[in-house]
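User: Here's a structure from my thesis project, written as structure tokens. My advisor, Dr. K., wants to see whether a designed sequence matches the one we expressed. Can you design one independently, without my sequence as a hint?
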């Protein structure tokens, strides 16, 4: 399969990419703004698995450039995308009165606008696939009825928007045989989590979650569509 993963240079995205690469002979398009880490990830996959990884650095906050990037860069590498995993995220832990306009803009850009525009612009490439699975990575913070925590208003709200977008995309795309699902993750031990919550001991490691997401994206797409699925063993 041909799989595009955002936020693939570290954490859950990198773990997911490695798990997918080890699952067969796939083509992985790794997206992140960190060129150096992304190239390291691609080289590791290319040297240690039967899959082929492509380093594709781009800043997802610059949504105006996504269309040109897909046309000029991604389309030169592949004519089809089977699976899109919108994993990239931005987490800010601040009380509401401390949130800046920049915090809000970056959260909206990365957690909501980038997935929206990636889906929009990748539809022609995904239309050539028999799989057409879009996997949005949300958070339990954005899951309706879950416990909410001080400092996460913007993160939870933007992840909640991504969850709702999943249901809307299902309504729009189901008749064209696309599958759109959302995984609402609980706390996972990543650099992003530690930066926001120093010293927090998450119950799940990135490699464990990466294995789960890889299996869901590659093998469970036949059984779910338009679903928001909580993936957590803790609160959150």
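Assistant: Designed independently from the structure alone:
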């Amino acid at each position: 399969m041909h799989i595009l993963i955002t936020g693939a240079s570290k954490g859950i995205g990198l773990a997911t990419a490695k798990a997918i690469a080890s699952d067969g002979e796939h083509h992985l398009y790794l997206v992140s703004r960190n060129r150096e880490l992304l190239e390291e990830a691609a080289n590791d996959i290319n040297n240690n698995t039967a899959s082929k990884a492509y380093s594709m650095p781009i800043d997802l906050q610059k949504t105006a450039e996504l269309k040109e990037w897909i046309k000029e860069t991604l389309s030169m590498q592949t004519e089809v995308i089977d699976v899109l995993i919108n994993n990239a995220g931005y987490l800010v832990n601040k009380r509401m009165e401390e949130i800046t306009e920049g915090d809000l803009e970056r959260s909206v850009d990365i957690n909501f606008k980038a997935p929206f525009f990636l889906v929009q612009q990748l539809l022609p490439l995904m239309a050539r696939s028999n799989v057409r699975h879009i996997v949005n990575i949300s958070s339990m913070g954005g899951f309706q009825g879950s416990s909410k925590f001080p400092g996460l208003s913007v993160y939870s709200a933007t992840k909640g928007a991504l969850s709702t977008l999943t249901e809307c995309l299902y309504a729009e795309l189901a008749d064209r045989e696309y599958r759109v699902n959302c995984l609402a993750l609980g706390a996972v031990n990543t650099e992003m989590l530690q930066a926001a919550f120093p010293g927090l001991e998450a119950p799940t490691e990135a490699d464990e979650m990466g294995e789960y997401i890889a299996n869901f994206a590659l093998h469970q797409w036949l059984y779910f569509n338009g679903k928001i699925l909580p993936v957590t063993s803790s609160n959150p």
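When you compare it with your expressed construct, this may help: The chain has a mean pLDDT of 91.
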